[in-house]
Structures are given as C-alpha cells and as structure tokens.
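Input/output pair, single chain:
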Amino acid sequence: MFSFFKKDKSTKVEKPQSLKERLFKSRKKLGSGLASLLLGKKAINDDLLDELEMLLITADIGINTTDKVLESVRQNASRKILKDSDGVYEFLKTELAKLLIEDNQLDTDINGTYVILVVGVNGAGKTTTIGKMVKHFQSQGKSVMLAAGDTFRAAAVEQLKVWGERNDITVVAQSTGSDAASVIFDAYQSAQAKNIDILIADTAGRLHTQGNLMQELEKIKRVITKQNEAAPHEVMLVIDGGAGQNAVNQAKEFNKTVKLSGLSITKLDGTAKGGVLFAISDELKLPIRFIGVGEGIDDLKLFNTKEFIDALFD
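Output:
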C-alpha cells in the first residue's frame, strides 16, 4: 500500500517523464487518433463528422460534449471558416481547450485556516492525493493539518498518519467507527487554535448512489459551516481518471449533495480515458485543481490547461 514511501537504492538517475509521455494512452486515443482519422481526407462531410463523433465518444469526451463540439464544426464549415479537413485538427484542439477552466488554482491566502474537504468514491485515491497535496502546500511555505474523517476504515486512518509522520504534521484522528463530523469539527478547532494555514479533511469513500452516506457528507459540511460560514473553502472531488463517463455521473451526484468547488483527477498515466476531463469540465463548469500522473510523491501536478492540451495534441 505504501510502496511509494520506499527509497530507491539504485544509483541510476532516470530522466523524469514529460506530461506528454505520462498521458501516452490518452494522447494515442485522442490526439494521434484524430490525426490518423483526418489523414488523407479533404471534404468536411457527413461521413467525416460521423467518424469524428465515434472517435470523440470513444475517447470519453461524452455524447453531450461531442455534440456541442461537432455542432461548432458544422457551423464553421457552413460559413466557410473551416474550408477543409486540414483545419479540423487545430479547430477541435481549440474548441476542446475552451471547455477547460483556466482560472483553476486554489487561493488559500485567507485570514484564518483554509479548509479543504476531500470527497469521492472508494478507490479514487483520496488519501494518497491528500498526502501529496500536503507536500505541495508545504513547498509554498504553508502549515498544514490533516483530519482523518474516513472513520470506516482503520487502514485509511493509518495511511493518513503515515503521510502525517512523513511530512511532520499533525493528524487529528479518533477510533474506527467514530462520528466523522466530530473528528473534522475537532480538527478545525485545533487548526484555528494553532494558527494552521490549511486543514485538509479526508472522508470515507462512498458510492454516489449510497443515500445515507451522501447525507453524512451533508452533515460534515454543515458542521464545518456552523463554525465558519465561509468554510469549507474548497469541496474537492477526487476522481479516478480511468472511470470514464461514470466519473461524470459521480461528479453530478456529489455536486448535488455538497456543491463541489473543484476536482482532482487521479491515475491519468494508466488510462486512455483522459478525454473525460473535457466532459466533466463542460458538464459541471468546475475547475480542475490537480491531476495525478504517477505513483511518486511529486506526481500530483497542478493542472495547467495549456500543458494538458499540448501533451494530448502537439
């Protein structure tokens, strides 16, 4: 479970992989797939549009977003702005880029403790993402505290404590089965008393279809808001990039329950479903904060829309 904590004893120093290399599978499906499809074709006709539709949908961009993008192709072709298929590649690249929110970075500089509530389904990588976020914020000179709000699994609490020890920060935790809202309430009070810059609260993984557990999230958020009506300042949904279109449904349901303010997408290095970022961004109009592109502690990256687009298409 904690294999990324082990030190590499080898003396060989490998060159870090680029984002383009990390996103190879999604790039092959979307960027390279699009280039191959357009190769040798000239006219923008129904046959080409049908092929484009199939490619975009199978790249997990989703039916609704695909329809929107292809309608833009049709309109620009009818106006002769797009004269032939040569311009379609760059046009689609630009249209997809427009779907991503550029102003996507957290502003944690507030008077008091900035609270990040992390939610998501089982196995999405919430706890690991939290541990890696700690390093990111510490590199900015921020003090961080963790709240072990996943009280269902003893392993989750232990994993968070390992991250706490590694980063030399406090982890507020109670016994397995404790009330998650109480744990996070205590952590927030402690963070405020100690003038901690950022409190990151873990929560138990839950399916978006589990009504009772979704209600628990509502309770957690309500308890935090009672202490500070502006908190939590960020409700971050962590999504497994390999979940494809199911991730869109997850995001919609979590958004209904706790009103999300940002997303982090994990495991993008191991999937061809990276196109789902466009679908989620389009459907929910939410910024993507971080992307996970590997198992290393430095493999959680701030999401940069231009770098992501270039990695897929250039």
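The chain has two domains: 19-98, 114-313. The radius of gyration is 21 Å.
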